[in-house]
Amino acid sequence: MQCTSKMFNQTKHKSRIIHSWRVWAIYMVLAPNLSEEQVLKQACPSCDATQLCNCYSMGLDFIPLGLTGKITTLNLSHNRIKHIRSQDLQQAVNLRALLLQSNKISSIDKDSFHSLGKLELLDLSNNSLDHLSPEWFEHLFALQHLHLQGNSYRDLGESSPFSSLRNLSSLHLGNPWFSTIRQGNFEGIELLDKLWIDGGRLSQYGPGSLKSVKKINHMIINLRNTNVFSAIVRDLLYSVTWLEVREIKLEIEKKSLVQNSTLPFKIQKLTFKDASFTDQYISLLIILLKEITSLQELEAIDCMLEGKGNWDIKEIASSGQSFVETVSIINVMIQNFHLFFDLDGMESQINKLKRITIASSRVFMIPCKLAKSFSLLLYLDLHDNLLVNNRLNETICEDSWPSLQTLNLSQNSLKSLKKTAYFVTRLHKLINLDISQNNFGEIPDVCEWPKTLKYLNLSSTQIPKLTTCIPPTLEVLDVSANNLKEFGLQLPFLKELHLAKNHLKTLPGAAPIPNLVALSVRRNKLNGFSREEFESFRKMELLDASDNNFICSCEFLSFIHHQAGIAQVLVGWPDKYICDSPLAVRGVQVGAVHLSLMECHRSLMVSLLCALVVLVMLVLVAIGYKYHAVWYLRMTWAWLQAKRKPKRAPLKDICYDAFVSYSEHDSDWVENIMVRELEQACPPFRLCLHKRDFVPGKWIVDNIIDSIEKSHKTLFVLSEHFVQSEWCKYELDFSHFRLFDENNDAAILVLLEPIQSKAIPKRFCKLRRIMNTKTYLEWPLEEEQQEMFWENLKGALKS
After folding, report:
1. Which cysteines are joined by disulfide bonds (predicted)?
2. I need a labelling partner for 760 at 20 to 30 A (CA). Which of 79, 111, 114, 621 fits?
């Protein structure tokens, strides 16, 4: 019922979006003209032919029309429904759960539920029913859970209203006015998992009324009448396994609880909750409960003892041995707890106990004499009390608790781990020790512990650093919620290690803990872990690394995605493993992140890119070399430099008639024939030769450009050698840029030997064009024609 209610409550706020008054105003106006399905949609918007129909707290005055066989769950709780009619639920034949609690239902037609043969849960609690009718339930053959508490009926009628409910598993009934249970009221019920009776004013109980129920696993009854309590206990001796009595104030009644009853009994556990006891009744209750030989466990929760332990020890001791093995006392208030007696004389009554819990009850000490009497006790829980180190010497004295295996001293006021360890060395069979939520702080390097100790809980004890004080015999160690930044203890037998809520940045090393099976590093400062770290724990079966701030690096993601069986090992995977960085994937589950090749191999990609750039540069250099790109660049630079100078030098700066450009292979003809012919002519011509007239130490390009600018003409002596000799070592060719860019007739071409324009390299495109468009002089081999050649050349130089 509780789980179903929670499910419906989740949609509570959605249903409240349409206010009740508005819904009903529309309904009252339009209802006459609407079909049943339309009416249903208006009255309960979330109930439109769906399996789950939630009409929680919508101000409904009646069950909506148009309910169909498709609906399996109908929540009509917290409305104003007063009456359930025969036809209201007639079509809802497939209902499994019907919630009608917290309405104002005061009457139900006898056949209202007849069509609900598949109903498993019916909640009619907190209404105004003043009686229960067997006719309501006679066709509910599948009903398992029935809630009838909080109505106004005072009894269950003359007969059983539940006689047809053969499959009933849980029944909750009663109210503040419920006062009478009669014989036969529970006829028809044979087996109940849970029976809850709110009988705060129950004063009349027909003996044998509950005997018809053959088995009840857990019964809860709110009860104040001691006489009724005794009668109910007698009836339940053979049927109930766990009886929980609430709000009772026990008073003196010496009548036996097992009057005229025969063995064997079935009741095993008895719980008192919110009850009130006196010292006198405690003594009597202990004696009376000894008669229930099947009783193994006693529990008192949120109770009050109006006394200080002044029990009738002699009478208790003379009444025989108790069969109870487990006693739990939780949050029991004793106003004068500091005056509580030491229970001297109770030793014979406690030597059979095996498990004791005394929690949240302000216990500050257990007398040594009493502690020595728990000869068979295996489990002792004293958490959330007032124990201090100075009193442990009395509580855990020599020869006390001789069989104790598990001790819980958590949530006390212990401050010295060394003293605590020393006292528990007196427990020679101790295996499990919980001393969590004490304030130990710094711990020493050396401590004494029981040699049998295997489990130690030191969580939430303000320990900043672990030392060799921790016993090496441990198989389970819990040091969660401390201030630890590292873990390096040598614990060869350790199988479980809990390091949650600390400040660890890496997994602990595997070498000191070779047998580790389970590790928890939840909520630390882990950024990730590597394949090597993970695989170093060879016996690891469970790893809880959830709720850390993971850096989703390529290495970490590659390990996570490719490690076989990682999902079976990681606790909370994948929901609790979230990336904190990079920023692009923050908040995304680790298992869902896939980084690109560039993001994962940035260094490699940069290296490859650099290598590619170098390769491209080498290719460009090779191409440039092949296609003389350097030459073009150098020519461009020279051209830019030349552009800064005046187009033509003033006449006063002209020093030469011609600048001669020629190949070294043709120097014999130029220097011995042409220079002699021209410089010895009348009048003589002044020629500029690079060997003779260039300024020493001056950059060759500047020499060339200056010489051309200071010459009236530029004379090119062309030959095959000229073309194939890098054009006079490239430096002389810089003159072409300026010369041909000016589009003048200052160039004179002399072909020393026949040469085709096609043989001239393409980079000298302007020279090729000049040879195709202008007249040039050819050096004749015949002597008779040479005179004409010299005349033409001299004429060209003078023009």
Report:
1. 47-53, 368-397, 447-469
2. 621
